[in-house]
Amino acid sequence: MKHETSHPIAFIGPGGTKAPLTAHDFGSKAAQLWRMNALGLDVPPAFVLSASLCGERRAGEVRRLLEDGLAFLEAATGRRFGDRRRPLLVSVRSGAEKSMPGMLETVLDVGMTAETARGLMRLHGNPRLAFDCHRRFIEGWCEVVAGLPRAPFEQVQRDLIAAEQALSEQGLDPEALERLAARYLDLARDGYGASVPEDPRDQLAEAVEAVFRSWAAPKAVEYRRLNHLEHLAGTAVTVQAMVFGNAGVRSGSGVAFSRNPASGAPGLYADLLFDAQGEDVVSGRRQPVGLDRLGAVLPDVATALAEGVAALERHYRDVQDVEFTFEEGRLYFLQTRAAKRTPRAALKIAVDMVAEGAITPAEGLALLEGVDLSAVAATRFSGAAEPVAHGVAASPGTVSGRVAFDEEGVRRLAGAGDPVILLRPDVATDDIAALALAAGILTSVGGRTAHAAVVARQLGRACVVGCAALVIDPAARRARLGAETLGEGDWLSLDGEAGSVFMGRRAVVSEEPEAELAAVNGWRVAAPSPA
């Protein structure tokens, strides 16, 4: 089956749309998926609904487009949506013209039902995969589509984990995961009057509608305001065949940067989780591992990842932020985009790429357009002090500030004129307003590539994540940091370069990157004058 470019739907994969997709019509995510597929990288097949449908849309029109898209995916994968023996599952993802990390919604594992769970089990010979996908779909549908609060479902999961004497959901066996899915369904129905559709086509239509609807969510509106993106018209929706990072110990998901987006240092920079789906990594709710672990367990995947990410940087002539999944030792590329970076990293990256001959000086200047070069100084604390804790360095900078635990506290303390450090167990992108007001962020769990860490770098906030010594009691507005106790308004200091945490206030000194600034000035002097 062959499809040519046709508004308002496009196709990515074998027999798909021939002409490149534009970010304006189909979102930057789909445009880059099309390009990665064209470059020969392994991309799961997908179809895309245009951003033109995000405003006024007719349910009948969307349903017809979804049927066309499903027919394409079924032909490309050899699986059937809703089938009992060879079920096709899909992800439903947002994609605006400009990247908005974590601000719009995603629903994974769409097409999961009690029947397709049995089919997935037969197809893969993996009962745990089938029931894990089922409980994940119900979690995502209840939170994103039905708009139900996450906390009651998390409590149901914690109760079952405790009853099974497991350490986490990773320790639940297939039978326990099947019971967890059933308890989620009971909670949705009995607690909130919400029923998860058993018809996969109803699931898909409602998931697509929820992703379109997320364009108007408060966090998305606030992100566009902060980044001067109010002119964007809406989001496209990409529906893509699922690949399963949660298929066992030779599977996983992660995020890789072609260079360090916090410091600009060269070399691949990646976080990943084994036996996990991508949302586990970017949500910041689990603690990831690094590239060394992937190299030790699956060296062929690690090599293919490094080669693919390097190829994308060469093609786009800019630092790339790449999402990937590997299923049973096979690597798939799910997304690439220009990496959000700190001003300091932007300067070093531009200078290094010009020095390497990867880009021209004119391209280096283009990479620095809009970058505040007055904010590129490296900072450090003066004097010596012993840190009380360490975490993962996620965004550089040194800051002393008063402790707050939520947006209300950040607003109150910042309004008094003091810098504020936001303490959270993990930072969801719902916290965008608090992130924008805070001078620094410290979390108990999470990795360098979680959406919230990406946003912190973009905003230029010092950020330390994955600080295991931090235990927060949000209701009491208090926290323990090792042996120390912190209350709202107490002073704390973060070194986002080293991942170190200090009690109290500390003085800060700064150092200008004089060599890099001189190189940029040299490009400007040598640049031809405009005609």
TrEMBL record:
**Stretches assigned to the PEP-utilising enzyme mobile domain:** 418-499
**Per the database record, which ranges form the Pyruvate phosphate dikinase AMP/ATP-binding domain?**
66-288, 302-355
A Pfam family annotated for this UniProt entry: PPDK_N
Q: What is this protein called?
A: PEP/pyruvate-binding domain-containing protein
Which species expresses this protein natively?
A: Xanthobacter aminoxidans
